[in-house]
Amino acid sequence: MPLDHTHEAAATSWVESARDHPVFPVQNLPLGIFAPADGRPRIGTAIGACILDLAALAERLPEAVRPALAAPTLNALMDRPPAERVALRHAVFALLTDPARRAAAEPCLHAAADCTLHLPFAIGDYTDFYVGIHHATNIGRQFRPDNPLLPNYKHVPIGYHGRASSVRPSGVPVVRPKGQRKPPEAEQPVYGPCARLDYELELGVWIAQGNEPGDPIAIATAGDHVAGFCLLNDWSARDLQAWEYQPLGPFLAKNFHTTVSPWVITAEALAPFRAAQPPRPAGDPAPLPYLWDAGDQARGALAVDLEVLISTAAMRAAGLPPHRLSHGPATNMYWTVAQIVAHHASNGCDLRPGDLLGTGTISAPTPDGYGSLMELSTGGKTPVTLPSGETRSFLEDGDEVILAATARAAGFAPIGFGECRATVLPAR
Ligand SMILES: O=C(O)/C=C/C(=O)CC(=O)CC(=O)O
Ligand SMILES: [Ca+2]
Ligand SMILES: [Mg+2]
């Protein structure tokens, strides 16, 4: 049965907190791994202020996915064919909307506030791309004043291999990294706490079924390999980065901690929020055929609003709410998700279920939408003033950074991505 989003849009859940819920209405049904107060991690879905235990309800869900529902990660479940993922969504949707199924499902609901959220996958590999052309231009100007956007940028989706071990779910504090840097006036490099700690606003892409080693993924079918999306903060030590990045790219400046929102916002839930990829500016090169698909250009972008907020220790002490640093749409991506998936596998590299791709920092063209503090503060030349009267060029210990995202489309209830936050702790 294909997905019928018009039918889904009109439905309401018997879970009262889900009605008009700004993040987790019944149209969202994100998948994740949660542990109730006294229980082991298991697969669930967020619904309003609750989490539904899907492992406990396996007998009422499609037979083909039952063995995978018993696992403490989503890897095996997302290794199932796309049609089975759709069937699972239908079945969970029916459980949560059909009053006749309420008696069976209700005992498997937990208050989300009493549960712990874990990483959704055992992550094999993490790769970070660079699709935010405004970010690439802004940051390139600071690292390479004469040559901000390198000539390969519009031909090849640039990326680097990140570190899977240090991807952490929302809420785990980030310890300020130490490292080697060369202050501008210094003759010799020094080792010590990072002095230019930054965040990066990105979307994360979770890989579903992979490809065989040696077999590229055709761009027209790249979407079948995407399980869903999360928010991703690629914490970055700019002083370490500036010193270490040539010629092999980011290394210790970006592998100490990466925060993800723990719910997988599935590709199925986001289907009504697909948008046309903005046309390439006149004069830009046409991508090579392996990166070009008309259907992807028509529906490959995401109508998702993104924002970054900060809360400092002084703001919290004064009772001030988090302050929004920037906001902008996810359509500010020069390359689509299908293009980065197809490119990653274009050499025969095998992607596997639970691999994580970062899009790269998504900045808008104007400062109110810049996705990193290095851009907002122009590398320290234009510090940002906060409601507490404090200023920030880079992050201080005690600062909490919160990323948020909401998908919006006319005729559909908005769906949110959930929490992606972490607080900076002093270096050890
Ligand atoms: O242009 C550079 O040298 C620096 C690039 C980055 O900071 C890499 C990165 O993490 C990509 C991104 O988030 O867009
Ligand atoms: Ca990044
Ligand atoms: Mg990182």
UniProtKB/TrEMBL annotation:
Pathway recorded for this protein: Amino-acid degradation; L-phenylalanine degradation; acetoacetate and fumarate from L-phenylalanine: step 6/6
Question: Sorted alphabetically, which InterPro entries does this protein's record hold?
Answer: Fumarylacetoacetase (IPR005959), Fumarylacetoacetase-like_C (IPR011234), Fumarylacetoacetase_C_sf (IPR036663), Fumarylacetoacetase_N (IPR015377), Fumarylacetoacetase_N_sf (IPR036462)
Q: What Enzyme Commission number(s) apply to this enzyme?
A: 3.7.1.2
Any idea which positions bind Mg(2+)? 234, 254, 258
Annotated active site: 135 (proton acceptor)
Outline the segment boundaries, as ranges, of region: Disordered: 164-189
Would the keyword Magnesium turn up in this protein's UniProt record?
A: yes
**Coiled coil region boundaries:** none
Against Gene3D superfamilies, the record matches this protein to: Fumarylacetoacetase, N-terminal domain, Fumarylacetoacetase-like, C-terminal domain
List compositional bias (Low complexity) regions by residue number. Answer: 164-177
Has the keyword Hydrolase been applied to this entry? yes
Give start and end of each Fumarylacetoacetase N-terminal domain.
27-120
A GO molecular function annotation here is:
metal ion binding
Q: In Gene Ontology terms, what is a biological process of this protein?
A: L-tyrosine catabolic process
Annotated residues for binding of Ca(2+): 128, 200, 202, 234
Q: Where does substrate bind?
A: 130, 144, 241, 245, 361
Q: Which cofactor does it need?
A: Ca(2+); Mg(2+)
Question: Can you give the residue ranges of the Fumarylacetoacetase-like C-terminal domain?
Answer: 134-424
Sorted alphabetically, the keyword list is:
Calcium, Hydrolase, Magnesium, Metal-binding, Phenylalanine catabolism, Tyrosine catabolism
Q: Which PANTHER family match?
A: FUMARYLACETOACETASE
Query: What is the protein name given in its UniProt record?
Result: fumarylacetoacetase
Originating organism:
Novosphingobium aerophilum
* The gene coding this protein: fahA
